[in-house]
Amino acid sequence: MRTQVGIVGAGPAGLMLSHLLHLAGVESIILENRSREYCEARIRAGLIEQWATDMLVETGVGERLTREAMFHDGNYLCFNRALHRIDFRKLVGKGVTIYGQQEVVKDLIARRLADGGQILFEVKGTNVYDFDGKEPKIAFQHDGKTKQIACDFIGGCDGFHGVCRPSMPPGVLTNFTRDYPFGWLGILSESPPPDHELIYAYNERGFALYTMRSPTLARLYIQCAPDEDIDDWPDARIWEELHVRLGGTRKLAEGHIVQKSVTPMRSFVCEPMQFGSLYLAGDAAHIVPPTGAKGMNLALADVRVLSRAIEAFYRKNRTDLLQNYSATCLNRVWKAQRFSWWMTQMLHRYNFENDFEMRRQLAELDYVTSSQAAATSLAENYAGLPME
Ligand code: DHB
Predict the structure, then answer these.
(1) Pocket test for ligand 1, best of 221, 263, 342 (most atoms within 8 A of CB)
(2) What CATH number matches the domain at 5-73+95-176+267-342, 3.30.1330.30, 3.30.930.10, 3.40.50.300, 3.50.50.60?
(3) Which fold has domain 181-265+352-383?
(4) Residue 98 CA: which ligand 1 atom is closest?
(5) Which residues contact 102 (CB under 8 A, 6 or more apart)?
(6) Active-site option among 19, 22, 294, 348
């Protein structure tokens, strides 16, 4: 088999890369080790930055999103038993879209297949090699047979635990990491969210986030231990924490809990994001803590840069955009890292014995919600920094 771009991974990064390349007249094949059903059901965050929403609509994969998503002009920070609204629309003229990541995945898979795209699901033993030479290759097993794809470029879109990043030669990558002493316990509940916009709540007992997938389906998170045992959290305990952490600012309806999971918290960046003709994108190259929901947005930003660089190579024989891929992406990645870390450190309890930290966090929350300059900075980052 031969194609122009071999893509490892059918998450948002791999699928969007394939879609953008197709629109630019470039062929690709996607390899994915999971099943289509698994990819379409995998629950992740559900907040899309303004430019990314625009890109989905402008590139023809926003039809269902336009019909079903919720469009928010602001959100709330909750502390000291009061809600404080940040009005993104007024401050920076942008909003955010609430639409589950797996809905974006479903829409992209449907569109790639309708456009004749090739996605091979449930492949095994994927191995990328020769990307330092003229013709990179991907070997894998599919339908019980060993196969190989020769290509011009490899898109490493296979996530943090994928094979692409570890395939880089020793000494090429530098890793930057930061761990956090907590995780998020997340539930999906068949009940209305407490407000039609998101609430980020700082509380003495820890952080909580009240978001949603629809007006009747709440997505709720509470700060917990990083190694939290989900069996220690019967439904009644979860609801009790969610009520306490909302500080009486809104009524919280309880509902049937349809999903429960623990989200880990980590900051990670590898530099550079490329070597030879292997280009890493999305979680394969960087992880953000979930506060602010930058993960998928960064993945979409990476592949937009990569697809344009590959298009310029085929159309104009240009290699400068390809050479600059990593530097271009890392500029945005580090700003999103900074913002995700900043939101995380402002809203979570780190040391329950240290009241200095608590007073400092409350001062920061008060500042962010009372200073137009500070609120504008939050809004600008939250709704998404400009792409160009
Ligand atoms: C969601 C998750 C986030 O981490 C966030 O900051 C906002 C929304 C969500 O799942 O809807």
Answers:
(1) 221
(2) 3.50.50.60
(3) D-Amino Acid Oxidase; Chain A, domain 2 (3.30.9)
(4) 11
(5) 39, 40, 41, 42, 43, 44
(6) 294
Model confidence pTM above 0.90: yes
Q: What is the pLDDT along the chain (388 residues), one digit of tens a residue?
A: 999 999 999 999 999 999 999 999 999 999 999 999 999 999 899 999 999 999 999 999 999 999 999 999 999 999 999 999 999 999 999 999 999 999 999 999 999 999 999 999 999 999 999 999 889 999 999 999 999 999 999 999 999 999 999 999 999 999 999 999 999 999 999 999 999 999 999 999 999 999 999 999 999 999 999 999 999 999 999 999 999 999 999 999 999 999 999 988 999 999 999 999 999 999 999 999 999 999 999 999 999 999 999 999 999 999 999 999 999 999 999 999 999 999 999 999 998 888 999 999 999 999 999 999 999 999 999 999 999 7
Q: Are 30 and 155 in contact (CB under 8 A)?
A: no
Type of residue numbered 20: L
Ligand 1 — pocket residues by CB below 6 A? 45-47, 198, 209, 211, 219, 290-293
Protein residue whose Cα sits closest to atom 3 of ligand 1: 293
Q: Tell me the C-alpha to C-alpha distance, in Å, between residue 268 and each of 159, 177, 284, 330, 338.
A: 12, 4, 10, 12, 11
Q: Using an 8 Å Cβ cutoff, are 383 and 339 in contact?
A: no
Ordered by start, the domain boundaries in the chain are 5-73+95-176+267-342, 181-265+352-383
Residue among 330, 334, 337 at smallest CA distance from 272: 330
